[in-house]
Amino acid sequence: MAFIDEKKKLTLSVSSATVEKAKKLGLNISDITEKILSHYTFEHDIADDDAFLGEYRALFKTILPLIRKYNISLKVGDVDLGQGASQDFYLEPNGVVKSFLADNYDDPLFVAKIDELGIDAVRQMFKPVRILEGLISQLESEVENQKETTRELKMVRKIIEAMNESMTSSRGR
Known about the structure:
By secondary structure, the protein is of the alpha+beta class. It is 52% helix and 15% strand.
């Protein structure tokens, strides 16, 4: 007799904005969640720094193909420095994490490859769900930007084709 895996209902709370953005991107949250949960094993003590660090590094490596495809710098953390100042952390398409003082993105305070990230830096990172929400939001925005740019390119090309045709036919008169 074959073993049949009976499904159980699970309620997962995700912001409605994230759900809508995921739908626009063609993502099936239920399927993704089931795949993640079916493969999820966490054998380490939660307080284990190596496991904590390893999971963030693995998450960032998993994100890389998407941010490379769309050339996105994804904000993955920040720390309040007081007096209105903050330090922001970004995962870059080239596989490094950079931090900057907010509003001064020309001079990084910190640059490290994913595998070089230390526990102190990782402790400044957002919780995983916030990173996921930021990724989905940026992907949605970039996909929309690409669609709009494609429409503009087609329109401009048609205008130039019409200009070429008009100028070519007026010379022949």
